[in-house]
Amino acid sequence: MNSLDWRSYLNRLVRFWRVSLQFRTVAITVLLSGLAVIVIGGFISVSISNNLFASRSVQVQEEARTIHNQAQSTFDAAQPTDDQAPTVELDNVANSVTDKILPSTTSPGSTKFAIKRTPGQAETPQNMQPLSSTNFPDGVVTDSLRARVIKDVTHVQYQSATLPNGAPGLVVGSQIRVPAAGSYELYLVYDLSSVQTTLGYVQRTLALGGLALVLLIGAVTYTVVRLVVGPIRLAAETSEKLAAGQLEQRIPEKGDDVIATLARSFNGMADSLQKQITQLAELSRLQQRFVSDVSHELRTPLTTIRLAGDVLYDHREDFAPATARTAELLHTQVQRFEVLLADLLEVSRYDAGAVELELEPTNLVLLVEDAVDGMQPLAEQRGSSLRLVAPGGYFEAEIDARRIRRVLRNLLGNAVEHGEGNPIVVMVDSNATAIALTVRDYGIGMKPADVSRVFDRFWRADPSRQRTIGGTGLGLAISLEDATLHDGTLEVWSELGVGTCFRLTLPRERGLAIVSSPLELPPDDAIHLEEVQGA
Fold this sequence. Notes:
By secondary structure, this protein is of the alpha+beta class. It is about 55% helix and about 15% strand. A hairpin with a 3-residue loop joins strand 9 (about 425-430) and strand 10 (about 435-440).
């Protein structure tokens, strides 16, 4: 398996860990249980090991002490009664000790023995040949043990050792006084393989029991978590269906426990939400229908009023000055009223979700040039100059030209309205995935609190400020809807006393994700000021 497969497997495992509460709970429980079993099992194993070897060590020392006493008694009993008695054959006595005392008193596995003469003694009248059992492991009798045996003649000395076959062992030594022959050392080697076998059996039992316990804990945890997580998962699935609009979905109610109480509470909440959503949907439908009906009903009398107003406006020179001014005001407000009705009908279509795009490949630079040319006379009346900057690139995009042209008119009209007679810069640029335009003015700007509400319907940053170009208060709201309908964005940056910049970003192709906008926001004022000065 290569590194890519391992990385893919690890990513799936991490994702499964993150999304599965049941798996996390079982895994953490098994891990902690396994750690606890290892700690407790290790402690028990060490305790049993220490107790086994300690008890066997005490037993060996007692046994060795008994052997030492019997051997010493045998040698003492064999000493002559007077100086003229014949010399006792010490080798025969030693053989008697090894033949009778050692095999009869030691347990199986501890028959290895040796009798060694203590070094550094003066010459004695008689000597006894050293004795040892067959295959006695001389290497386990260390110099430190012999030194302790020679130094302490009254106690039995012992030390742990590893036998040539790899089994654990215990070496016990003591000093014996042989009449007329001096001091000798008696060493016994005990094979503790039986203790090691017992300890191994205990450790295997603990390991298997611990593993079975961990698996049992994991199975119990899985069962319990499944009983608890199952209803929670069902509640999550039901809530997702409710969020998707399936308001009739409910959780089954079974029993009287906490889960059943949660189900009843959830279902009650769902009933309440369904009722409120239904009421709000009905209210919204009635409101949309009311706006649409009112807009349509107003068109007939408005048409009559407009025709009458046009007649009066055309003959205003024949009227007295006050009457002529009234005819002009009537004509202006009727036109504004017609625009307001058109905007209200467009908003009602957006609210009803009945808007469809008519996409076609369009060069956005040409579209912007037409909009700028159409707004140029009004900008000159307000003392502002309009400047178009198009560096070059992929300017063609699939858009609804009519709607984007309306967005441009709204943004340019807003800039002229609040530009305070300062220059206005329009920039168009694009990249491989998106096309964008910005409308930058250097007017009064807005406060940060006002920026967040600039796309609200009928909202104005300064209510006392009069609209001078006939806006309805719905232009920016409709522009935002048009941008969203194109899967694009309409954003705004503004700073009080510095000016405002709107940025429209659209995908070059329908369904193509926008990676980044070609134009910056906040705008690069160094570029804008350079273009203004060039104008």
